[in-house]
Design a protein that fits this description.
- The complex is a heterodimer of chains A (about 500) and B (about 375).
- Helices cover about 40% and strands about 15% of the residues of chain A.
- With about 500 residues, chain A is an alpha/beta fold.
- In chain A, helix 17 links the parallel strand 10 and strand 11.
- In chain A, the strands form 2 sheets. A 9-stranded mixed sheet of chain A has the order 1-2-3-5-4-6-7-10-11, sandwiched between helices. Chain A has a two-stranded antiparallel ribbon with strand order 8-9.
- In chain A, helix 7 runs antiparallel to helix 16.
- The longest helix of chain B is centred in the middle third of the chain and has 33 residues.
- Chain B is elongated and about 100 Å long.
- Chain B has about 375 residues and is mainly alpha-helical.
- Chain B has 2 domains: about 260 residues, no CATH class; about 100 residues.
- In chain B, helix 3 links the parallel strand 1 and strand 2.
- Chain B starts with a helix and ends with a helix.
- Helix content of chain B is about 65%, strand content about 5%.
- The chains are: A alpha/beta (about 500), B mainly alpha (about 375).
- The interface between A and B is large, with 50 and 46 residues.
């Protein structure tokens, strides 16, 4: 029995070796038509097979999946618009409906190319499958995972996690481009995706026609600095409400109430009973400071959900936790990040770049220190080498480049984009007054990008639409955003 | 025999070319039909599609500032200038804000004439924009009450549309193919009349028949000459269409219509038997007439048959029966080709076979007619 088992292992290893040597160096691929949830159009799907470790072309091979959203009228068949997702750890293919909506005008004449970066989505995803026995509502969770949990996560993945950094992934993107026969790319990167786009500018500028960086993470910046931006976002939110007459008169003590609640939660979690947001059944709800700030943080990413926050904070201060529960429920099943890939990127490219002054600054901020501590714990065990000094150099480029920031962004504040463009000679930075993170998805910026792509120049872009008052009002009660004074005047009229 | 046949065809073609007016008349159709059609489509597209900046009438806009902001973000706004705005009115009820605050459905009226096709796209855009606002607000109301909005989406319908960007333009391509097939009939028509009824009117037919040639040779040479003209017209309409269709901004309607080189070649091959049948049919009918004018009026009536067959294929009338018939069978095969589907070969062969059989029958009919002195001398 044991002997056969032993034999099986030997033969399996041998088979692997044989098949490994038989595979050609050229990427193997397969293509057919497919659909992505939320998009009814027939798409072209496929994958190429590449070496997981480019230094070992005969080693393990992984599939890099891509999707082409075909142009409506393909006037430029040798060009594609490559949209790169953020995270790090999001699947670009899963976001196809979002990109299709934002870049509908680009798609009229050019293919949109989406690639699941290695370690995400369909491309050998690196996920930690935690056993979720306890409901996230009850779980008094700390974002910091234990050493055992991290080790278990590492063990569960069938991959050499050291090979999932940005620059290795960039080579995959190039391989996909060559495989599909596009000679020119217009590249768009949002959030962490803007780092990939900048690396593209650095390593393969000859294949790029235009570049759009949205919610920019400059090469000089560690993504972990987003922690500080969260605090900035909260401050902006409170100031925003104070500056809006209707919101201020409805929630005059918002700043104090937020501070009270935050310090109350700093002492320990609030335990209460609620109706489950999905099942409607009675269930215990343990509100920790992590959950509270985490829910606020995620809510600030979306313009419309942000409209609920003053009311949610105000209600929580008077012990009505339903609004917070609703916000928390939006992300309690996870936010679609491949954590293994996320760790590979952050541990290799970001954690070591936090300066002492920055660490000092972050220690004063609860969210920042939480973020740094949890990533430090993971990175201590994550077997990946840090990138060199040259990685952090700003991008030197003369490519027509559009940088987009949302003034309300809780992750990448507008001055990050200014930092990214110091050595770009043909770049413009536009700030959307009312946008949060990912300007193209929540404003007219998608059409501006279409113009940039069409003209290969940002000189004639009409950015006035980014300045208009596009922001929705704050919710004043659980039903309406309309100002109370106007409602009062209507009510005062004699009723028939 | 062969050289005699060739010189006969050459004689027919020379005759045709000498009469510049009828050459041009035949080819006008091929050149101008696609141009006129594309011009019409361009006007239609601009009229039908909603402008980026849609101006409508909004009554009581102060009653719902947030809704107005949402509409403005989607390019829909109020205008006092009646010449700029579309005839669509949005009326916000007086108690919109009170109803909203109490979580009762707030009422908004949308007034427009749905039978006005120029407005259809704009009306759809306004109502869709309001529906989106409403459902977004519904989700936010649930969240703030501690309920996950996915609870009210019991079914997530994932639509998977099997159309390609080419097949979505199928209706328009159907019309395009129809005009092309019709060009086969139109382009050679003048020549067919001229070389039959015309020749007899000029009394040169009898002279021709007095030469040492067989009637069959004469009939075949006439059919060949007319077919060459028909094919010339087809080639011309294909080339003009290829350029013209490229200029229309189809993408604004969400699909593309393009005439590929493959399609041109397929159309020319498939069009050949149709051209032969068209020529034989036109010659047959023209020989029955005594004068040029008479032939013209007969042909106008006879041409209705291929027109009806092609039309039926375009509009999918009785597709199962008609797919074996001449003209409509070929047209259906071409439509499949352009939609990127497999060409139904058997069906195409059968309908081409029928087409050729009819051509042979007609040719034999003409041959028989020309053997009768009554016909030759127009008695």
């Amino acid at each position: 029995m044991r002997l056969t088992h032993f034999f099986a292992i030997i033969s399996a290893a041998f088979m692997a070796a044989v098949s490994g040597s038989l595979i050609a160096d050229e990427p193997v691929s397969d293509e057919n038509s497919c659909y992505v949830d939320g998009l009814s159009d027939r798409l072209r799907c496929g994958y190429i097979t590449v070496a997981e470790n480019p230094q070992k072309p005969n080693g393990r091979r992984i599939q890099i999946h891509f999707v082409v959203i075909p142009a409506i009228k393909n006037i430029y068949p040798d060009q594609a618009f490559l949209a790169i997702s953020g995270g790090p750890g999001q699947s670009a293919i899963d976001q196809a409906p979002v990109f299709e909506r934002a870049f509908g005008k680009v798609r009229q004449q050019r293919d949109i190319l989406l690639i699941d970066q290695r370690g995400t989505g369909r491309s050998n995803i690196l996920e930690c499958n935690e056993d979720e026995i306890i409901s996230p509502l009850e779980f008094a969770y700390e974002e910091i995972a234990s050493a055992d949990e991290i080790q278990a996560c590492l063990n569960s993945m069938d991959a050499d996690v050291s090979q999932y950094g940005s620059e290795t992934a960039l080579a995959d993107f190039e391989a996909v481009r060559r495989h599909l026969g596009y000679t020119t790319l217009h590249v768009y990167g949002v959030s962490y995706g803007s780092r990939m786009a900048q690396l593209y500018m650095r390593h393969f500028p000859e294949v790029l026609a235009t570049v759009t960086l949205d919610g920019v993470v400059p090469m000089q910046q560690s993504v972990l600095a987003v922690g500080l931006a969260v605090d900035r976002g909260l401050e902006l939110l409170i100031r925003d409400c104070e500056g809006t007459p209707a919101c201020h008169s409805q929630f005059p003590q918002l700043r104090d109430r937020f501070a009270q609640l935050d310090s109350r939660l700093a002492e320990g979690p609030i335990r209460t009973e609620v109706f489950h947001p999905m099942t409607g059944e009675r269930t215990p709800f343990v509100l920790t400071r992590d959950k509270f700030l985490g829910a606020l943080r995620m809510s600030m990413y979306a313009q419309n959900i942000r409209q609920l926050l003053p009311l949610a904070i105000d209600q929580a201060a008077v012990k009505n936790y339903q609004p917070l529960l609703g916000l928390f429920s939006l992300t309690m099943e996870g936010i679609g990040l491949a954590m293994g890939m996320h760790n590979s990127v952050v541990c290799g490219e970001d954690i070591h770049r936090l300066s002492d002054t920055m660490l000092q600054q972050m220690a004063d901020s609860y969210i920042s220190s939480l973020l740094v501590d949890s990533m430090s714990a993971a990175c201590d065990q994550w077997p990946i080498e840090s990138v060199g000094e040259a990685f952090s150099a700003p991008i030197v480029s003369a490519l027509p480049t559009l940088l987009l920031s949302g003034a309300l962004d809780p992750a990448t504040p507008p001055d990050w984009a200014d930092m990214a463009m110091v050595d770009m000679t043909n770049a413009v930075h536009l700030v959307a007054t009312d946008a949060t993170h990912g300007v193209a998805m929540q404003s007219c910026a998608g059409d501006l990008i279409a113009d940039l792509v069409e003209q290969s120049s940002w000189q004639n872009l009409d950015s006035s639409c980014l300045e208009e008052g596009a922001r929705g009002g704050f919710y004043l009660n659980a039903s309406s955003v309309e100002a109370a004074t106007e409602i009062l005047s209507v009510q005062q009229e004699p009723q028939p | 025999m062969n050289s005699r046949f060739v010189s006969l065809v050459r004689k027919e073609l020379l005759d045709a070319v000498r009469d510049k007016r009828s050459v041009m008349a035949g080819l006008y159709y091929a050149v101008f039909t696609p141009l006129i059609m594309c011009g019409l489509f361009m006007v239609l597209i601009t009229q039908m599609s909603s402008p980026d900046d849609l101006k409508i009438t909004i009554v009581n806009s102060e009653g719902a500032p947030d809704l107005i902001r949402h509409l403005n973000n989607n390019g829909i706004s109020h205008s006092d200038d009646a010449s700029q705005r579309k005839k669509i009115s949005l009326i916000i009820s007086d108690d919109y804000a009170t109803q909203m605050l109490a979580a009762k459905p707030a009422e908004v009226a949308l007034q427009a004439d749905s039978s006005n096709e120029k407005l259809a796209d704009s009306i759809r855009r306004v109502s869709r924009s309001i529906e989106r606002y409403s459902s977004e607000m519904a989700a936010l109301r649930l969240i703030i009450r501690g309920i996950n909005p996915s609870v009210v989406q019991p079914i997530k319908l994932n639509k998977q549309d099997q159309a390609t960007r080419d097949s979505k333009g199928g209706m328009i391509l159907g019309i395009a193919i129809f005009t092309m097939i019709y060009s086969v009939f139109i382009s050679g028509m003048n020549l067919a009349i001229d070389t039959s009824a015309g020749e007899r009117e000029r009394n040169s037919l009898a002279l021709l028949l007095s030469h040492p040639i067989s009637v069959r040779q004469l009939v075949l040479s006439k059919i060949t000459a007319v077919s060459i003209f028909a094919m010339l017209g087809l080639l011309l309409i294909l080339l003009v269409s290829k350029v013209a269709y490229m200029l229309v901004p189809w993408q604004e309607l969400g699909f593309s219509v393009g005439i590929s080189s493959t399609f041109i070649i397929a159309m020319l091959i498939i069009g050949l038997p149709v051209a032969v049948m068209a020529s034989a049919l036109q010659l047959f009918v023209s020989f029955m007439a005594k004068t040029f004018k008479e032939a013209q009026s007969y042909l106008t009536i006879v041409l209705f048959v291929p027109l009806a067959l092609s039309m039926a294929a375009s509009y999918n009338i009785a597709p199962d029966q008609l797919r074996w018939a001449p003209v409509s069978g070929q047209q259906q095969a071409l439509m499949e080709l352009i939609k990127g589907k497999e060409i139904p070969l058997l069906q195409l062969l059968v309908s081409c076979g029928f087409t050729l059989l009819i051509s042979i029958a007609l040719a034999l009919g003409i041959e028989r007619m020309l053997k009768s002195e009554k016909v030759v001398f127009g008695l």
